[in-house]
Design a protein that fits this description.
There is one protein chain. By secondary structure, the protein is of the alpha/beta class. The chain has one domain: Vaccinia Virus protein VP39 (Rossmann fold, 3-Layer(aba) Sandwich). Helices cover 32% and strands 18% of the residues. It contains 8 helices and 8 strands; from the N terminus they run H-H-E-H-H-E-H-E-H-E-E-H-E-H-E-E. Strands 1-7-8-6-5-2-3-4 form an 8-stranded mixed sheet, sandwiched between helices. Helix 7 links the parallel strand 5 and strand 6. Helix 4 packs parallel to helix 5 and helix 7 packs across helix 8. The longest helix is centred in the N-terminal third of the chain and has 16 residues. The protein is globular, with a radius of gyration of 17 Å. The two termini are 27 Å apart.
């Protein structure tokens, strides 16, 4: 309630919480436009029935499909050697990455169930250990490595990465923390993607506001310099790492 009143007061006073995102965030009409922008040719492989499921009003306009197109297009066309997925859940995103980049090592991180209470407020679901990654294991995908860790205290020791998909806790602090921890492992030209990112929906979904505030903060502190793209009706921010991006120690 206090946070809602604070936001209303800031709007009443004309305070802009997202000055950097208003300049840096670019909506893309569909994934084909994304392919044209990056001069890519390969279509993403989308063979997971969950992508086409309609469960809640948030899935209108094929939102799940557009999310999968965002991640799948990046991973398939970048031809990565190593990918990181923060926030395994049942393993659908890890499977999508593994299928679109069968040559890559895919590392996927999920908070251990016994540490869930320390994982922030905006976490999607608490799963028993046997449920974590159950989808990709059921598909027999062998290029995925499961890691159990709370990213608040985890130190990545994975070597160079080409793609990092951040979809763990959606609290602002965690999104900043996770981004700063993976940036040192990403070369210029690599990609970071953040789930639950869409600047047009920050007043509708509190967790999405927290994610967008995190990206805003990363621009404000001089960590990020390039544009962040997102497909219309999708919830994924797409960022190509720039040579001038810096990665200070997480606060």
């Amino acid at each position: 309630m206090k946070e809602r009143l604070r936001r209303r007061l800031r709007r009443f006073l004309g305070v802009d919480d997202f000055p950097y995102l208003r300049r840096r965030a670019c909506m893309v009409t569909d994934y084909r436009e994304l392919l044209r922008f990056f001069h890519w040719e390969l279509e993403p492989i989308l063979d997971d029935p969950a992508v086409y499921a309609y469960r809640t009003i948030e899935d209108l306009n094929q939102r799940r499909v557009h999310d999968a197109e965002s991640l799948g297009a990046v991973v398939r066309n970048l031809r990565p050697s190593a990918c990181l997925d923060i926030g395994t859940a049942r393993g659908h995103s890890a499977a999508l990455m593994a299928l679109n980049a069968p040559q890559a090592a895919v590392y996927t991180v999920n908070i251990p169930p016994e540490e869930f209470a320390e994982g922030g407020v905006f976490t999607t679901m608490k799963l028993e250990r046997a449920e974590i990654g159950v989808y990709y294991r059921g598909r027999g995908l062998t290029n995925i490595t499961q890691i159990y860790a709370n990213t608040a205290t985890w130190t990545p020791d994975l070597g160079p990465l080409d793609v990092a998909y951040i979809d763990g806790s959606h609290d602002t602090w965690f999104v900043i923390n996770d981004t700063l921890k993976v940036l040192p492992h990403l070369r210029p030209g690599a990609f970071i993607l953040w789930h639950d990112f869409n600047p047009a929906l920050v007043e509708r979904h509190a967790w999405m506001r927290d994610v967008c505030l995190a990206i805003e903060s990363l621009y404000a502190r001089g960590t990020l310099h390039g544009p962040v793209l997102y497909l219309r009706d999708a919830w994924v921010g797409i960022y190509q790492v720039q040579a001038e991006d810096i990665s200070p120690t997480p606060a």
